[in-house]
């Protein structure tokens, strides 16, 4: 899994990569520029007539100069705007790439840029080398960039955004950010979505193993991480191997939650799913999910279940007692979602009873309910680590780039998913998937890795056809396709 380093570690990573591979830092910069231009050709407006490239004096600017040359070579009309004065100390790579600019590319200073120009703007002003407070001229450069009405694409990171911290000052408001090698931590904070726009990760040939010598507890979960995490089943596998699970979900008016989580669990591969619902609501489950069994009271012997989920749509009314009974009679990890999280926040004495290793899946509001009000993602992640370690529990903070917070302090950011998944019931689907994997004998970590990634991927698959019309049932329907796309039998 790809480690997320700090901005300060980038230089050491680059130096080690360069030395190990016998290349120069200019070669690495060229790779970055080539990766950027290859991606550029896939975005809307990539054939824009005019491309305005703002370049700083450091290596981010160096990327910009190299990109300018390559875009020019592929037939685009490019103008470069230098964001430094004649006497500024340039990085050797930036200088070298500036020298390589062909004479057809206009070179101007940033203050000559007319924000009413047509075209598209590339922001290669400041990268991960930016630190402290912006100097006053840098603020003016960023204001000029932001006054441009067309689309803006940031190289590595929007200029002005610190790589590992919260934004605290002016910053380029990008429509796209193309980041190199690994996503900078601050690009994953939801409060920065307005300045990062859509984020893409560009490979510049640094292998995951080259990160191992660096300390760090944050990771980025990608498609190639999934296949190795899955259990292998074989031709003698029987339904018992795929797990018996119990899902406690739904109540009058919210029975959809039970149907969605049970169906998602079955589509994820569960062998046997039992749904605990009120007797008067049984028909709805029996008719909608004939594959599931239904029970009306909590079975005496819970140990026969390989995994249990509780929460979606159960209501907060009298269920604290039910939660306590399950906690006292079951020792394996449980998935706790939605109303179960609210009940826990109202009855904090229950926290000590939650089976160790259980998974809580709060969205941001539920997170604040149980862990206390948080101001931002940095604060949230710190609180999450403390909570998970204190109670020996796992949290899955839902949102774009959902974060798996493990009891050992690691944070794993998910890369799959789309905005079309912001739809009622998507969380119930995730609960069903996580419980299914736990029931199939996956550890909590593996269940969360596969569950959160494939949930996002199912959303992407559904969204390709259904776009903003995607509903939770479409995500469920796409779950089997995720196994196909990932090559998992
Ligand atoms: N592995 C990779 O990710 C690669 C990254 N590349 C690119 O290199 C930059 C980092 O380059 P670096 O030279 O270290 O720094 P920057 O260009 O980001 O910034 C230096 C530049 O910024 C000025 N500056 C710093 N602080 C301030 C401030 N407070 N106010 C105003 N100006 C400030 C400083 O004076 C310098 O001029 C990375 O982001 C990538 O884009 C490589 O090209 C390939 C490998
Ligand atoms: K930038």
TrEMBL record:
InterPro entries: Carbohydrate_kinase_pred_CS (IPR017953), CARKD (IPR000631), Nnr (IPR030677), Ribokinase-like (IPR029056), YjeF_N_dom (IPR004443), YjeF_N_dom_sf (IPR036652). Its cofactor is Mg(2+); K(+). Keywords: ATP-binding, Isomerase, Lyase, Metal-binding, Multifunctional enzyme, NAD, NADP, Nucleotide-binding, Potassium. It comes from the Bacteria. (6S)-NADPHX binds at residues 59-63, 127-133, 156, 257, 313, 363, 428. AMP binds at residues 398-402, 427. Binds 1 potassium ion per subunit. The keyword Lyase applies. Its EC number is 4.2.1.136, 5.1.99.6. SUPFAM superfamilies: Ribokinase-like, YjeF N-terminal domain-like. Gene3D superfamilies: 3.40.1190.20, YjeF N-terminal domain (3.40.50.10260). Residues 10-212 form the YjeF N-terminal domain. Residues 222-486 form the YjeF C-terminal domain. Bifunctional enzyme that catalyzes the epimerization of the S- and R-forms of NAD(P)HX and the dehydration of the S-form of NAD(P)HX at the expense of ADP, which is converted to AMP. This allows the repair of both epimers of NAD(P)HX, a damaged form of NAD(P)H that is a result of enzymatic or heat-dependent hydration. Catalyzes the dehydration of the S-form of NAD(P)HX at the expense of ADP, which is converted to AMP. Together with NAD(P)HX epimerase, which catalyzes the epimerization of the S- and R-forms, the enzyme allows the repair of both epimers of NAD(P)HX, a damaged form of NAD(P)H that is a result of enzymatic or heat-dependent hydration. Homotetramer. This is Bifunctional NAD(P)H-hydrate repair enzyme. The gene is nnrD.
């Amino acid at each position: 899994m790809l480690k997320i380093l700090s901005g300060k570690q980038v230089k050491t990573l680059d130096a080690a990569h360069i030395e190990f591979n016998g290349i120069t830092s200019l070669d690495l910069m060229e790779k970055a520029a080539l990766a950027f231009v290859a991606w550029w050709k896939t975005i809307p407006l990539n054939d824009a007539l005019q491309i305005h490239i703002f370049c700083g004096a450091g290596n981010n600017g160096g990327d910009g100069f190299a990109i300018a040359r390559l875009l020019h070579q592929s037939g685009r009309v490019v103008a470069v705007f230098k964001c430094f004065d004649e006497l500024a100390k340039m990085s050797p790579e930036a200088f070298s790439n500036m020298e390589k600019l062909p004479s057809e590319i206009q070179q101007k200073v940033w203050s000559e840029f007319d924000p009413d120009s047509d075209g598209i703007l590339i922001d290669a002003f400041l990268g991960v080398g930016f630190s402290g407070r912006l100097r006053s001229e840098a603020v003016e450069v960023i204001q000029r960039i932001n006054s441009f009405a067309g689309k803006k694409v940031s190289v590595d990171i929007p200029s002005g955004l610190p790589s590992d911290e919260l934004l605290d000052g002016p910053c380029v408001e990008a429509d796209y950010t193309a980041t190199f090698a690994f996503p900078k931590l601050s690009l994953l904070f939801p409060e920065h979505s307005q300045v990062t726009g859509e984020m893409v990760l560009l490979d510049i040939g640094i292998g995951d193993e080259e990160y191992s010598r660096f300390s760090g507890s944050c990771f980025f979960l990608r498609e190639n991480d999934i296949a190795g995490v899955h259990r292998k089943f074989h031709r003698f596998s029987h339904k018992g191997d795929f797990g018996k699970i119990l899902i406690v979900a739904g109540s009058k008016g919210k029975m959809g939650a039970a149907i969605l989580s049970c169906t998602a669990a079955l589509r994820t591969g569960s062998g046997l799913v039992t749904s605990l619902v009120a007797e008067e609501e049984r028909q709805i489950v029996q008719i909608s999910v004939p594959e599931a069994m239904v029970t009306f009271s909590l079975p005496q012997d819970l140990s026969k279940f390989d995994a249990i989920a509780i929460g979606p749509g159960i209501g907060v009314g009298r269920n604290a007692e039910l939660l306590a009974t399950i906690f006292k009679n079951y020792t394996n990890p449980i998935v706790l979602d939605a109303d179960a999280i609210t009940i826990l926040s109202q009855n904090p004495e229950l926290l000590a009873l939650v089976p160790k290793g259980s998974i809580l899946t709060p969205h941001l509001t539920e997170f604040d309910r149980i862990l206390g009000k948080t101001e931002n993602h940095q604060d949230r992640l710190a609180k999450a680590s403390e909570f998970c370690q204190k109670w020996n529990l796992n949290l899955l903070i839902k949102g774009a780039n959902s974060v798996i917070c493990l009891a050992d302090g690691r944070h794993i950011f998910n890369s799959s998913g789309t905005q079309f998944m912001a739809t009622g019931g998507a969380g119930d689907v995730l609960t069903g998937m996580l419980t299914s994997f736990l029931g199939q004998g996956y550890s909590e970590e593996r269940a969360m890795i596969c569950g959160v990634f494939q949930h996002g991927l199912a959303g992407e698959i559904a969204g390709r056809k259904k776009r903003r019309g995607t509903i939770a049932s479409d995500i469920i329907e796409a779950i089997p396709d995720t196994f196909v796309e990932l090559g998992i039998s």
